[in-house]
Amino acid sequence: MTYQGGLLSKTLVIGIILLFIGVAIQPSIATVEPKSIDVEYFDVTTEFIGLEKEYTTKLTKEEIQELDTLYDSISDRLNKSLSIEVTIGIFKDAILELDRFGLLGDVGIKETEKLVLDCYQRTILMKVFERAYNREKTSVFLNENIFCLIFGITSGLFFYSYLAYLSAFLSMLLFFWWFPISYFIMMFMFYFFTIRNPFCLGRKIVFPKDLAKGKIISFGLNGVRYWNGMLKGLLGDYEGEGIGVLGFKGLKIEVVTKPYQYFFGFARRVRIEGS
User: Fold this and answer.
1) Same domain for 125 and 54?
2) How many domains, in total, are found in the chain?
């Protein structure tokens, strides 16, 4: 009994010593736990030109860098494209990737594809354009393309909706005659030309002098056309600045921390001069 009692006493002493050691060590271990890192997010806005919708999400700095890499890879693939079929495939892949970044919002992949490619894939319409368009006669315009898919990484460009100005002008013209008619005409024009958009109408893109720069590539009835460097619009004048693109429909993506925009979609006519 004496031996067992002594053994029990020693065990208790050792247990108490280990308990105190554990309590003493615990705070020191806690001090080396990793600190929480605050992740900074930045606004990225996708404008669905032709649907009159806009969606803003937040991405991390790393995700924005991945987005830049994605657009550079799209540009490289388009530069190597030898057919419109391959180009359409590249555009579809780009839409899938943008959806992976969460940039399409509730619009989704199918509706975005329709917005970007529908005008070009209207087979009957494109055949009529091809027959009506004299390539040999207009091929002298090396800086021009028509009824084309277009892609750009640019800065300084402005996207204007002349249909909105037209509907507003007509509404104001009729306002003093009969308000209900004015409102009906305005809503009809908005629905018919922007939502239904049977004639693939879109926005014009203005290239301000000494501000517009970047790279643009198009695939259309004039084949492939490239522009790079400082860009100048050659399709007329808008408030003293050159218009470079007419009838654009598609996506325009802007990052709040970046001075440039990404855009791609369909354009009725493009005439640009690069340097």
Assistant:
1) yes
2) 2
